[in-house]
Every structure is written in C-alpha cells, then in structure tokens.
Amino acid sequence: MVVLQLRFLLVPFLTSVMGAAQYMMQDAALLNYIDRRILSLEKRLEKCNQDILDYVEEFRDFSKMVLSRLAGLNNYKAEVKSEVENLLTRIERAQRDIDYFGSVTDSNTCIEVHEDLVKQQLFEEEEEKKKLKLMLNASCDHMLAGIKSLKVVKKTGDKHGSWMKDPGKKHTKIYLLNGSVNNVILEFANIMTFMESSHILKARRVTLPFPWEGTGHIIYQGFLFYHRYGSLNEIIKFNIQKRNVTDQMLLPGAGRIPAYQLSPSTKIDLAIDEQGLWAIHAELETGGNIVITKINHITMAVEHTWDTSCTSKNAEAAFMACNTLYVVYNLPSGGTSRIQCVYDVLDAVNTYEIPVLHFPKRQGSHSTIHYNPKEKQLFAWGDGSQIIYKLHTKQKV
Hints:
about 400 residues, alpha+beta, Neuraminidase, 4-stranded antiparallel sheet, 3 helices, 20 strands, elongated
C-alpha cells in the first residue's frame, strides 16, 4: 500500500522534472538560434559597412579624376578656341581668294591677277616688317660676337635651377629658384649676401601659390613669369612683393614637347631682352624646331610668333638678346656648350656668316641660360653652379 502511494507521488514529480528539462532544452535551442541570427546580422552589417567604405573611396577617386580632367579641359578649351579662330581666319581668306579667281575667266587676266596678288603679298610683308620694327624698336643694333669669360659665383642647390637679377628694377637683389619643380623663391639683398656661406639664413623666402615646372622662369619689373606645374601651357604672372597672382595666359602650341632635348623638364623657356618678354618652345608641327613668341608683359597677350630653323635636338638652352635668338647645343653626355644656331626676328643678321661660339673653360651642361639686358651678361646654372658669362658684342651688319 505504501509502495503504491509512493508511485503515485513519484509519477507527477518525474513528470514535472522532465517537463522542466524539456523547457530548458527548448530555451537553450531558442537562445542558440537567436545568437546565430545576431551573428549573421553582425556579419552582414560589417560587410555592408565595408562596401560603403569601398564605394566612398571609389567615389573620391572618381571625383579626383573628374576634377583633373575638367582642369585639363579648360586648358584645351582655350587652346582649341585659339586654333579655331585662326582656322576661321584662314578659311575666310581662302574663300575670298576662291571667289575672286572664280570671277575671272580670261587667261591673261588670270596672269595679271596672279602678279597683282604677288605684289599685294610683298606689300603686306613689307608692312608687317615695318610694324614689327616699330613694335620691337629697331635701334637695338648689337649682336653677340663672343663669350669673353666666365665667373663661377657659387655652387649651391640641385643640378637644375635658375638664378637671376631683375633687369627692370634698379635694385641689386639676387633671386634663386632651386629645382625643376618647386614653389619657393629665395631673395637676397645683393650678390655679396648670396655668396656668403650662410646665405640661406639671410634670404627672404617667397612662397608661390602654384609650383613652377622646368627652369625657364624669369623675373622682370617686380614680377615672376613662370610655367605652372601640371598645366600644359599656362604661364603665371606673380607679384613678388605683394605675393599674389596678377594674371595668367595660355601659350598656344606650347607644352607638348620639351623646348630643348637635353633639358626635358623645360617645356616653356621664358626670356627677357631689350624688348621685353619672350617665350621659347618647340612644336611637333615644326618638326621639333624652336618657336619664339613675343609677349606683352603688361597685358599677357601674344604680339607675334616666329617659326625658326633652329632644331631642339641636342639643344640644352637658349636666350634672346636684341631681338635675336641664340640656341646653345651640347652632347647628351655633356661637353663644351656652343652656340651654333642664331635667328634674328627682323632679318638684321646674316645668320649663315656667324661662326660657332663656344663657352670658355668649362666642360658640363647648362639647365638655364638667361640674358640680362641691363648688365649685358648671361646668368647661367650649370650642374648646380651659378655662373656669370661676360659677352663680347658688335654692330649688326
């Protein structure tokens, strides 16, 4: 009887215990399921976050590429506009000639028209020469006859660079622009300060808003004119004292190939002579020959352009002096620099009778040669050395 009662008591107890165990197992399974779902959601959220980061980075790269291409398109737009305007002018001129010839039927008349056109062309050429002489001041009548001597003023800076005085100012300040890509000008009170061993500490530093490219920059009347780094053919006009950009221009046709084969970093070489600002560069359309352009340094407008017969092959530098281009050549391995191509824009010099002019007492190469019309000297940068060449001149014949 007692055993029977115990059975009746144990059955409900065991049933309740087994039920509780079953509920615990179900809860554990539910918790495990929930945990797995949460882990799955966390992984998906992590992947989504990583995808978002990848998309953001990809969008940034795309934005940089678009901005870069837009900047390039602005340059190409101005260049294409200039070329289209030039093409339209040529088309209009050709159309006038075609219409004129089309109205003439008699062969004799055609011959007379041809002679008239030749006379007209010769007359226009003479008028153009007169205009150029007025613009360039024909009283500039001296030419380079030789390089008398050299003086190595100092050896400082990189292999490539440029140094100069401002021929348009009365002060004696020296400017040093080190490297083929940089944005800091060093200004010295005079050449003695520059020659001191601690000259860097005594220099006034002028930081440009945009770095330069090459070594073809020039300082004139308080302004630095230079080729902007990263642009095809943009020339910047920078006020050194006020430290701001006052103007800029695009030089048509320039910037695609180096101005000189032996100085590949310089696409546009700016120069100063008695007539003001010039640009020297090479073009594919001229077979790599050098092109010179007269620029109005005040308005930054192109005044005239000349295609020369001087090749850029094996050229290392060039300079303008009294309306005349002098191109300096060398060997690719370095040697004695020499002037063996001369081009006078007014045809006042018989270039075929000019002998080859050698630079004295020096083996090496130049990254920059600038003529100073005020002192009638060349300021050159050769393998990290700052050099002054004194010149011997004579009257043009």
